[in-house]
Amino acid sequence: MSWLVMANNNKPKNNFKKRTFKTSSLSSLVPNLIKKMGGAAQAKNSASIIKVINHWGEIMGHEMATKCQPVKIGFKKQKNRETGEQETIRTLKLKTDSALGTIIAMRETIILERLNRMFGTDNFKKLIIEHGYQSKPSQKSQTSQSKKHDINLSHIDDPILKERLESLGQAVMNSAENEKG
């Protein structure tokens, strides 16, 4: 009973000090917490690379898509050639062997147009081609085609969330089918 103090009339009385700090709402704390952890940007980047992976055949062309792979979507600062000002651009880093890297570099404009059309932006301005050993896909993944599954998400109003859940659902369903057969 060390935290209780008995008053003259033998009734227990709390001996707590009054708080000297103010409380904050959770809604005001969460954005700063996510910012410190890099969560929002990381989540957006992860969703972007998943979208690129899911549409890789459309971006690169189906024949080329089997010979290279996307690695990372990043941001880079560079000087705008027209205005001379610094700007932040989006980059797509991909990995392939050196012979194919030259062909991809020649098709860079077309690939960037496809990326920008897919994301509804014009931020993709550079491909970063990393040369290195490209592992051959397994026979199983070469023969399996992505099937379009009917996923009902009509109860979700947010179009971005709906698109990302649709993409995730398609990937999970196709992955489950590829493991079975």
Q: Can you summarize this structure?
A:
This protein has a domain at 70-134. Helices cover 47% and strands 20% of the residues.
Task: Describe this protein's structure.
It is extended and about 90 Å long. The longest helix is centred in the C-terminal third of the chain and has 22 residues, at 159-180. 47% of the residues lie in helices and 20% in strands. The chain has a domain at 70-134. With 181 residues, the protein is an alpha+beta fold. The protein starts with a strand and ends with a helix. It has helices at residues 26-37, 39-54, 56-60, 62-65, 98-106, 108-119, 139-143, 159-180, and strands at residues 4-6, 12-14, 68-79, 86-96, 124-131. Helix 2 packs across helix 8 (159-180). A three-stranded mixed sheet has the order 3-4-5. A two-stranded antiparallel ribbon has the order 1-2. The chain has eight helices and five strands. A hairpin with a 5-residue loop joins strand 1 (4-6) and strand 2. Mean pLDDT is 77; it is low at 138-144.
Q: What's the arrangement of strands in the largest beta sheet?
A: 3-4-5
Order of helices and strands: EEHHHHEEHHEHH
| Percent in helix | 40-55%
- Report how far apart the termini are: 68 Å
Largest sheet: 3 strands, mixed
Quick one: overall form?
extended
| Total beta strand runs | 5
In terms of per-residue confidence, which ranges show pLDDT below 50 for 5 or more consecutive residues?
138-144
Task: Give the overall average pLDDT.
Answer: 77
Please report the number of helical segments: 8
User: Structural class of the secondary structure composition?
Assistant: alpha+beta
Strand content: 15-25%
Radius of gyration: 26 Å
